[in-house]
Amino acid sequence: MSTKFQRVQPTRIYQLRIELQHIEPLVWRRILVPDTLKLAKLDRIVQAAMGWSNSHLHDWHIEQRRYGVPDREWVGSGDMLDERKVAIGAVLGERVESFAYRYDFGDDWQHRLVVEARLPVQEGRNDWPMCLAGENACPPEDVGGPPGFMDFLEAMHNPAHEQHADYWRWWGGPFDPRAFSINAANTAIRKLR
């Protein structure tokens, strides 16, 4: 007996702008996502578009509600709604204009997502997740949050800095804070499909 799974067809496409807060230069991405996408999958899309490695916990803050992966053994997840059960269209609807995404509770990377547009579906053209634009490189994982990243940048660009050689070895060579590849972002997103 064969069971066929039919993909739920989207009725709306959200154009979202993701901005990483509290660092300079501003790191941002513009993505398209269908309204049928679960918040858990949106997490993976944001990770891929930004350049994160998805190796830490995260949560969403949308209209005074918190979404993520609840865990009874984790003290901070008592009020968390399960992101795996909620489609973004159900939480964003027609009213939500912006919301928050936090990644790596230790480094505390805060992202602001702005709903730039609610678009009609153009089958075969915009009905899958994709990155449309962006600027600047995502900080390295485990660099110490915004203050650690600013220290990292300072040391990496000053060969006389006492931590230059240590950071250079840790990162594996030079770091260009202005680097961004839309092709690399979309390749990472495509691997999730």
Average pLDDT works out at: 93
Radius of gyration: 18 Å
Q: What percent of residues adopt helix (DSSP H or I)?
A: 10-25%
What's the CATH architecture name? Roll
Q: Which term fits the overall shape?
A: globular
* Sequence stretches where pLDDT stays below 50 over 5 or more residues: none
| CATH superfamily (homologous) name | MM3350-like
Number of extended strands: 8
Percentage of β-strand residues: 25-35%
What order do the helices and strands follow? EEHEEEHEEEHHH
Class based on secondary structure composition and strand pairing: alpha+beta
CATH class: Alpha Beta
List the domain count as a whole number: 1
Query: Helix count, per DSSP?
Result: 5
Biggest β-sheet, characterized? 8 strands, mixed
The separation of the N and C termini measures 26 Å
Structure description:
With 193 residues, this protein is of the alpha+beta class. It has a single domain (13-137, 179-190), classed as Structural Genomics Hypothetical 15.5 Kd Protein In mrcA-pckA Intergenic Region, Chain A, CATH 3.10.290.30. The protein contains five helices and eight strands. It has an eight-stranded mixed sheet with strand order 5-4-3-6-7-1-2-8.
Which SSEs are present, and which pair or pack?
Elements: E1 13-20, E2 27-34, H1 39-50, E3 58-62, E4 65-68, E5 80-82, H2 88-92, E6 98-103, E7 109-119, E8 130-135, H3 145-156, H4 164-171, H5 182-190
Parallel strand pairs: 4-5
Antiparallel strand pairs: 1-2, 1-7, 2-8, 3-4, 3-6, 6-7
